[in-house]
Amino acid sequence: MTQVNGMWKRLAMACTLLAMPALAWAQSADPHRWQLNMGKGVTASSQHAYDAHMIALIVCIVIGIIVFGAMGYAMFKFRKSKGAVAAQFSHNTTAEIIWTVIPVLILVVMAWPATAKLIAMYDTRDAEMTVKVTGYQWMWKYEYLGEDVSFTSRLDRESDRIRQSGEKPDLVKNPHYLLDVDNQLVLPTDTKIRFVITADDVIHAWWVPALGWKQDAIPGIVNEAWTDIKEPGVYRGQCAELCGKDHGFMPIVVKAVPKAEFEQWLASKKPAPAAEPAPAAPSPETAPAEAAPANAAASASAAETPAPSAQG
Ligand SMILES: [Cu+2]
Question: What is the annotated localization of this protein (predicted)?
Answer without folding.
Answer: Cell membrane; Membrane
